[in-house]
Amino acid sequence: IINAIMVLLTNITVVVVSRIARINFIEVEQLSSFDSLTGLRNRLSFERITDIEIDRQKLKKGVFAFAYIDLYKLNDLNEASGYAAGDNAIKFVARVIRENIRQIDTTARIGGDEFAILMPNTNAEGCESF
Questions:
Q1: Which end of the chain is more exposed for a tag (fewer CB within 10 A), N or C?
Q2: Is the distance from CB of 66 to CB of 119 less than 8 angstroms?
Q3: Whole-structure pTM over 0.70, yes or no?
Q4: What is the mean pLDDT of residues 16-36?
């Protein structure tokens, strides 16, 4: 009976520790893939997704579009109004992008004031409709 109880307690401990480890892994994955200021993907995460999409479209003989957005003179805003104003501008742009993309599109903050949007199955005419 004591051995059975010990085995049961050991199994419960293993399950609890495994769940905690899984939660921590998911949290670290989230932190390493997303920009903390905007909630958009970061550059490394975006590059991985882009590589996958390029391979997928090559196999399907499909198309995709890529948009690059650079906030012009953000440094001037930071110097004139402070970094909080610059952060608010970055968050605003991120929100506008997020609200105007399709569910299948991927967007990221790839630099301090640079954003990118990957649009699968989108040709030049499709880009103009955005």
A1: N
A2: yes
A3: yes
A4: 85
